[in-house]
Amino acid sequence: MKTHIALAFLISALLVSTPFIASAQEMTKQGYLEKSRKQKRTGFILLGGGTAFVGVGAIVIATNTVSYTITCIGLNCSQTAGNGVEAGGVMILIGALSAAASIPLFISAGNNRKKAAEMSFSNEPIYVPKYAGNLPRAVPSITLKIRI
């Protein structure tokens, strides 16, 4: 009995989600370009934020290392300076991971931009003599635009 309920639930979930999958796959040229812009913007935010975090973490480590060294010279080592070094290390790690996470976004943005360039459909004119008869003046064509 439980298997019948589970099977019915699985089939109904599949039937409900199928239209969403089909609509998500159909994208236009503008959709690909917009998606590419958003991914590129997100990539730049992650890269900039990660770089800033690495810089701040390095500054935190440098200042706390100096203060830790100065206090240890007088044989009165400070535990808070040691904690600052650890915090700076964590900040550098998080910043490096954030910057590394931007790489797949830049790659995906480039792929989406290429897909948008390949999807350019338009009617191209045919240059035929004016009195050539009943020939069409334009034909549907696939064009690929390369920006230089």
What are the main properties of this structure?
two-stranded antiparallel ribbon, mainly alpha, 148 residues, elongated, 3 helices, single chain, 8% strand
Describe the protein in words.
- This protein has 148 residues and is mainly α.
- The protein is 74% helix and 8% strand.
- It is built from three helices and two strands.
- The chain has helices at 2-25, 29-73, 79-118; strands at residues 120-125, 138-143.
- A two-stranded antiparallel sheet has the order 1-2.
- Helix 2 (29-73) packs antiparallel against helix 3 (79-118).
- The protein is elongated.
- Residues 20-24 have low confidence and may be disordered.
Give me the secondary-structure category: mainly alpha
Q: Write down the overall geometry.
A: elongated
Total count of helical runs of at least 4 residues: 3
The unreliable regions are 20-24
Beta strands, count: 2
What percentage of residues falls in helices of 4 or more residues? over 70%
Oligomer: single chain
Instruction: State the distance separating the first and last CA atoms.
Output: 65 Å
The run of helices and strands is: HHHEE
What would the average pLDDT be, to the nearest integer? 77
How big a fraction of the residues is strand? 5-15%
Q: Strands across the major sheet, in which order?
A: 1-2
Major β-sheet annotation: 2 strands, antiparallel
Rg, nearest Å: 29 Å
Signal peptide: 1-24
Transmembrane segments: 43-66, 87-107
Keywords: Membrane, Signal, Transmembrane, Transmembrane helix
